[in-house]
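Give me structure tokens for this 144-residue protein.
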Amino acid sequence: LFKEGVMVARKDFNAPKHSELDVSNLCVIKAMQSLKSRGYVKEQFAWRHYYWYLTDEGIQYLRDYLHLPDEVVPDTLKKTAKPEAPRRPTGGQRGPSGDRDRDSYRRGPSSGGYGGDKKLGGAPGGFEPSFRGGFGRGAPSGGY
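Here you go.
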């Protein structure tokens, strides 16, 4: 638990052995429940598995109990050196189209758009929609 900072156990109280330790699964679950009741671990449960994470108080408690120096920390708190990601070009071509920018793509070709001979704009000037009851919230109240 202290080495990795996490512990996983399947919810199987009758398992003769834990998957990673040489003790019964029930002993692992009960020991972690004891640490949880004292606030030394946080518990998550998903898909028939318990997941326990050490809290800061739990790390300090285990350090004192196991007589470990302060330099020893769980793997979950160690900083890992991330490999530097390859840099993206800041300008120039973008995507497979190359010379077109985003706005010209959205507008479509200059010959009237992607839909062929569509008319652009809204409804005609004299259009007046009317809603005469019906279904849903606009239905007249009454019986069915």
